[in-house]
Amino acid sequence: METGGVQITGQVYHDRGKERREVSMGGMPQMNMGMELTLDGDPRFGLPAGHTGPEPKAAGRRPVRDAGGDATHANRSGTAQPAQMRTMIALVLVAFGALGGASGAWAQDLAGAKDHPMISRYPAAVIDRFAEEAFDEYTLLTGKVKGKTAASAVDLEGRVTKIRYWIAVGRSSLEVFRNYQEALTASGFETLYRCKNKTCGGRDFNLAAVPYTPEQGDAYKDQRYLAAHLTRSEGDVYVALYVNRAYGIGGVKKNRIYVQLTIVEVQPMEQGLVTVDAAAMRDGLKQEGHIAIYGILFETDSANVNDASRPALDEIATLLNTDSTLDLLVVGHTDDRGTLSYNLDLSRRRAQAVVELLELEYGIAASRLEGHGVGYLAPVASNDNEAGRALNRRVELVRRRRK
């Protein structure tokens, strides 16, 4: 039925034993409809919190039943006059209300699932797969896949959150993908790799990027992928975004858009969990002549010492106060991101900042301490992955012969 050029169509169906409802509009002039994504929950993004989640349940509704008393699919259609966006949104809600007369609830997220606090969901999206690990490993694809081998990838360790959303028919993979891409870019994420369809590696990439499921398996003819990275002082964040259209499946799921969102929060070594005390420092200096201290943390690209470094500084001061014959070189080390000259200067300034804190706040004589920086000239691990770079970012204490 057409009235004023706008057709509103609703559908009630069952998915995994749950009733679902969808509404689509045809003949409507193109408009954004407020389809914007935000990255919330972290004050560094400078954006207001409050993501768009699933709609609330509709109370007091009864499911549609066929003559045999079994719940079944139902379709309802209505029409609306073209008007302003506010009116159109109201019409959608009215259409959903009409469907509510025949269905018991809105589509619901998987029990226990939730959005990641940094990234909001696409409007009206529903979570159907969810996993979260406080510490796990994840391989981030950053290049084309051929066979079972990626041209490049980053091995990560940290908090890993995996969320899969489905979005009702009527949105393209490009529209959904572009909303996420723009939100990530606006919030400071750097794009590491982006591809679509065959440029990703076709079916090989599809099999490597997401678990094989009826909704996403072999969906390589309409797939889009983005790997992104955000640098933060409290730990870097990596995002893998995979968007596909489920063209190869039948029934009500056919041509839905699926979003697989994986967020890895890398925390530098979880260095505050294990503190090297003064006794361990003394033993390390005696046996090796030097010891790495991972509990001294700095703001990104800065020589400002993080407040979380206090326990490690306390132990260094205890070491020096209990052995008046001990003099130390404080040596700063970095990973290999940036030029050598930049990292030499940064590591020197960081080492000097530690020396000044020990002198000014702990009363250690200046003659007993000396700060130096070597940049990335003395790595203890590979700089090709985040775990290795975290090991290379450190302060070392080196026993110095008294002058």
Give an overview in words:
By secondary structure, the protein is an alpha+beta fold. The chain folds into 2 domains: 261 residues, no CATH class; 131 residues, 60s Ribosomal Protein L30, Chain: A. It is 23% helix and 29% strand. The strands form 4 sheets. It has a 6-stranded antiparallel beta sheet with strand order 4-7-11-10-9-8, sandwiched between helices. It has a 4-stranded mixed beta sheet with strand order 12-15-13-14. It has a 3-stranded antiparallel beta sheet with strand order 2-1-3, with helices on one face. Helix 5 crosses helix 6. The protein is elongated and about 80 Å long.
Ordered list of secondary-structure elements with their pairings:
Layout: E1 6-15, E2 18-26, E3 74-80, H1 85-100, E4 126-141, E5 145-146, E6 149-150, E7 153-167, H2 173-186, E8 190-196, H3 197-200, H4 202-209, E9 223-230, E10 237-245, E11 257-265, H5 278-288, E12 290-293, H6 310-322, E13 327-333, H7 340-360, E14 369-373, H8 386-392, E15 394-400
Helix pairs in contact: 5-6
Mean pLDDT: 78
Helix count? 8
Sketch the topology as an H/E string, one letter per element: EEEHEEEEHEHHEEEHEHEHEHE
Give the beta-strand count: 15
In the sheet with the most strands, the strands line up as 4-7-11-10-9-8
Termini distance? 94 Å
The portion of residues forming beta strands comes to: 25-35%
Helix/strand-derived category reads alpha+beta
* Rg from Cα: 28 Å
Descriptors:
single chain, 403 residues, 60s Ribosomal Protein L30, Chain: A, four-stranded mixed beta sheet, 23% helix
